[in-house]
Design brief:
The strands form 2 sheets. Strands 6-5-8-3-2-1-9 form a 7-stranded mixed sheet. The protein has a two-stranded antiparallel sheet with strand order 4-7. It contains 3 helices and 9 strands. The protein is globular. It comes from Agrobacterium albertimagni AOL15. It holds the Pfam family DUF192. InterPro entries: DUF192, Saro_0823-like_sf.
Length: 158
């Protein structure tokens, strides 16, 4: 074992003191659950059980360090207004489909089978209000594509 210089040891201790409360706070983030629906052009309805990511803390935590999602489950990020959105997969160990949705419920883009643990940026491509994350490949399995529409208004928790 190589001895660590005092200055380096002090710097590492300071970093741990700084980041420990942040990591602890992130693990304490909780999510309420609900359900949303998409209507397809064929007249069908696709329902998904979701966790709501409504606050900045919830959106920052997202699905990091979570096991793979079961079928027909996901997390819906509501950004509160319409804007360009960028996301990444850092600390997310399983592939996701990211479905970007505008304020009218129109799916504007589906980023399929994102790369786990990647720090590459995934962009909405145009301004959106919502992003839905589901298991990677599940959008195609469900028949969810850019012709489907999110049923609005959402029954968000109060």
């Amino acid at each position: 074992m190589v001895p660590m210089p005092n200055l380096l040891r002090s710097a590492l201790a300071a970093l741990l003191l700084f980041f420990a409360p942040v990591a602890s706070a992130m693990s304490d983030v909780t999510f309420e659950r609900g359900q949303l629906a998409f209507e397809t052009t064929a007249g069908g309805t696709i329902t998904i059980d979701v966790e709501w990511a409504l606050t900045a803390e919830q959106r920052a935590r997202g699905l990091m360090e979570r096991p793979p999602l079961p079928d027909r489950t996901g997390m819906l990020f509501d950004f509160g207004d319409t804007r360009m959105v960028t996301m990444w997969m850092a600390n997310t160990p399983s592939s996701l489909d990211m479905i970007f949705i505008d304020e009218t419920g129109r799916i504007v883009r589906i980023a399929e089978r994102t790369t786990p643990l990647s720090e590459s940026i995934v962009s909405s491509g145009e301004p959106v209000r919502y992003a839905l994350e589901i298991r990677g490949g599940h959008a195609a399995e469900l028949g969810l594509d850019t012709s489907a529409r999110l049923v609005l208004p959402l029954d968000l928790p109060k």
